[in-house]
Amino acid sequence: MALLVQKFGGSSVGTVSKIRNVARKVIAAREKGNDMVVVLSAMKGETDRLLDLAHEVCEFPDPREVDSMISTGEQVSIALFAMAVRDMGHEAISLLGSQAGIHTDAIYGKARIDRIDPERIRRELGAGKIVAVAGFQGVDDTENITTLGRGGSDTTAVALAAALKADLCEIFTDVEGVYTTDPNVVKEARKIPRISHDEMMEMASLGAKVLEIRSVQFAKNFNVPLHVRSTFVDTEGTLVVEGGEGMEQQLVTGVAYNKNEARITIFKVPDKPGVAAQVFEAISAANIVVDMIIQNTRAGDMTDISFTVGKTDFKQAMEIVKRVAIEIKAERVMGDQSIAKVSIVGAGMQTNPGVASKMFSALAAEDINISMISTSEIKISCVIDEKYTELAVRVLHKTFGLDKEENNKS
Ligand code: ASP
Ligand code: MG
């Protein structure tokens, strides 16, 4: 007998009949003798609908009240689910984040889980019940309702699995697992049977949207095995597990892309100590996250600095940089929003030289210019012109043999 945490996303609980379908699936697992904790998202579209309402009432709705409201979507899902389970002759109870002992800090809209008190859940499980917990929400030390940020139900599920020492955390969604790349771009994309937490984290942060990145971080820290799989098709999905020995290492595991960044370049910056610090301190003071940075070496005592920020921060970042550019006596600032980042990810590249050059040659063969490069032990990212994104993804997917099962073993 195992303890399973199963999470179902918004599209899996989007209608009453889908909720009944989820109830049947959970009951089937229960009847195999497992203890079941089920985390649900709000019904598809509900969180957006609630947020729209808040912004209709006023331009800057109070964050505490926003959390209080948008957490209700999940409350509806778990209650409907518990009713459905009971209607099918099994015991079930729904619990809000606060009732389930999920304690967070007080940062509304992106609260972090501090600790979980799983007493109540344990008691209900002990009484033979299927326990449904509202995803995406918790409670702070003064009993205010908080939410964890969009997509946060994944984090709820993984955190509960860690706290309860569950045997497995299954994330049920509307796709069959994690793919070698976006199947909408490359029809030969394949489902990845196993991927390490580290690789998954890179894929998630580079734009693969099946799992919320914080949940993967959590799974890695607490070594929670994850299984990402389809609610609607009964096939094995993708196992996200601890990497390393024993895991077959692909040279490249996946190709990801991200069109949500923009580049800012400062030309002719005086090449002297403290200048970069001045630029990036001003940006971080505005809570803007910078991704890639490159600084050119130039002849003489001037240099150019380029970096990328999220598109949503672009306008504000440009204003800040233009101001700083005057202070540091740089020549001018240029912004470009039509860029994309394409990346290859794979734990196998740590031990294999030549992956980077293979990537660059493949892009060059298609006449795709690379304007920035960044690397880590398990990923290489290139910034290119946005209009070549799909072409680049297709070419890289093919170059590294990801469309064929066997081509790509290291
Ligand atoms: N309902 C929340 C959202 O739409 C949380 C989640 O679905 O994970 O972001
Ligand atoms: Mg989600």
Instruction: Report helical residue fraction.
Output: 25-40%
Specify Rg, calculated over alpha carbons: 23 Å
How many H/I helical runs?
A: 12
Q: What portion of the residues fall into strands of 2 or more residues?
A: 25-35%
Order of strands in the sheet with the most strands? 3-6-2-1-9-11-12-10
Show unreliable segments: none
Give the overall shape: globular
* SSE-based structural type: alpha/beta
Number of strands: 20
Average pLDDT for all residues: 94
Bound molecules: aspartic acid, magnesium ion
Termini gap: 38 Å
Biggest sheet features: 8 strands, mixed
Report on the architecture of this protein.
This protein is an alpha/beta fold and about 400 residues long. It has twelve helices and 20 strands. A hairpin with a 5-residue loop joins strand 7 and strand 8. Helix 7 (about 195-205) runs antiparallel to helix 8, helix 9 packs antiparallel against helix 10 and helix 11 (about 355-365) crosses helix 12 (about 390-400). The structure holds aspartic acid (ASP) and magnesium ion. Aspartic acid binds near residues 10 and 150.
Give a summary of the structure in a few sentences.
With 410 residues, this protein is an alpha/beta fold. The protein has helices spanning 16-31, 46-57, 63-70, 72-87, 119-126, 153-163, 197-205, 213-221, 275-285, 314-328, 355-365, 389-399; strands at 3-8, 35-40, 92-95, 102-104, 113-116, 130-134, 137-139, 145-147, 168-173, 194-196, 226-230, 238-241, 254-258, 261-270, 290-295, 302-310, 332-336, 339-345, 372-376, 379-385. The strands form five sheets. An eight-stranded mixed β-sheet has the order 3-6-2-1-9-11-12-10, with helices on both faces. A four-stranded antiparallel β-sheet has the order 13-18-20-19, sandwiched between helices.
